[in-house]
User: Which sequence fits this backbone?
């Protein structure tokens, strides 16, 4: 029990931030993906995209419920993340269905990697609610198939989407950097106390490597 | 059993249409309402709106599943309704959060009234799946409260929203008229065989009366 992270100074503030950023991320992903249903070329694809969106909304509601049970005000917890997420989404508006798809897959992947990194550092109860939100029945896998199919017959799309993937990662890390500096309790959690931008940077490297693996899986240059 | 509607000529085609229009209506309502989350002024309201949207998507998925079980191709069943729904949504783009709210409430109400009208005319199995999609834990009631609060302090909004409500009903009935004429098997279901525009018109009158009741409930002139 002496290893219980819950004992560390600033721990409670870090958990509030963590739950806030996860919840707000799910909410904005839901809104974006539901909007991207409009871009989907077939009803079957609208359905897949809509399903992904509602799964994110369910995770969002689970996170809210958990915050309330824990006496955390969800609005206050999410507030610091409204600006960085809206900056990210403003700068990465998909110009078509394929860009929306790749964004959903890449964004979902980065979010899940971040969940995994952080869930090793929190108490059991928080970890349980994070794992539930992490649950993934491979719903996003259809994206890989569609992107691979498209670029087989369209080399220009492959180049454009590879660039798009790099831009998505760049914008995500740039907003994450802002968050890391401003929310030092959450960043401190990564290193067991005190803000260490070196450790934050190493986490970013791991997120980048996983991102590159996902790009390769879609058949795109990372 | 001689009263079983399933025996009537054209019955199967009518049920395919009915399930198709219900399912596609839920899908487009989901996409619109999720998009309107962006317009909501607070996180709490984004959450309410998002919840309404995902409930509609769950109904949509239930209807798809039922169609597949019954050997109906959902894409083919929904196809005839893509154009009328997109005409309706094109012509009724909310110019702000309040218009989006009123549209969600009015649209949901009209759809539910239509469900109720039609569910009296179908076989038990179809009725069961329609009832599940009708289920309503009063999620849209928060709309009434918000609209009443707003117009108490803003008489101009009351006038504008009353006009907006009339426009929504007009556009909905105009698209429904197109559907009634083009999908005569579904219309025939209303009168037990043969297209009877008089009976369709009487149903429209009932839908209009219920709409007016909902407008009054929001404190708006119908």
Assistant:
């Amino acid at each position: 029990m002496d290893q219980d992270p819950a004992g560390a100074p600033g721990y409670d503030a870090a958990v509030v931030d963590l739950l806030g950023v996860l919840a707000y991320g799910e909410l904005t992903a839901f809104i974006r993906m539901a909007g991207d249903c409009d871009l989907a070329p077939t009803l079957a694809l609208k359905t897949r995209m809509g399903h992904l969106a509602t799964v994110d909304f369910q995770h969002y509601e689970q996170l809210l419920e958990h915050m309330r049970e824990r006496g955390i005000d969800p609005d206050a917890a999410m507030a610091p993340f409204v600006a960085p997420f809206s900056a990210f989404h403003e700068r990465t508006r998909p110009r078509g269905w394929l860009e929306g798809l790749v964004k959903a897959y890449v964004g979902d992947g980065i979010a899940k990697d971040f969940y995994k990194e952080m869930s090793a550092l929190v108490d059991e109860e928080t970890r349980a609610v994070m794992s539930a939100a992490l649950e993934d029945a491979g719903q996003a896998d259809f994206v890989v198939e569609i992107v691979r199919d498209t670029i087989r017959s369209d080399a220009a799309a492959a180049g454009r989407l590879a660039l798009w993937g790099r831009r998505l990662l760049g914008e995500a890390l740039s907003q994450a950097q802002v968050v890391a500096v401003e929310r030092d309790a959450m960043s401190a959690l990564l290193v067991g106390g005190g803000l260490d931008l070196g450790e934050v940077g190493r986490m970013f490297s791991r997120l980048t490597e996983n991102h590159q693996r996902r790009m390769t899986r879609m058949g795109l240059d990372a």
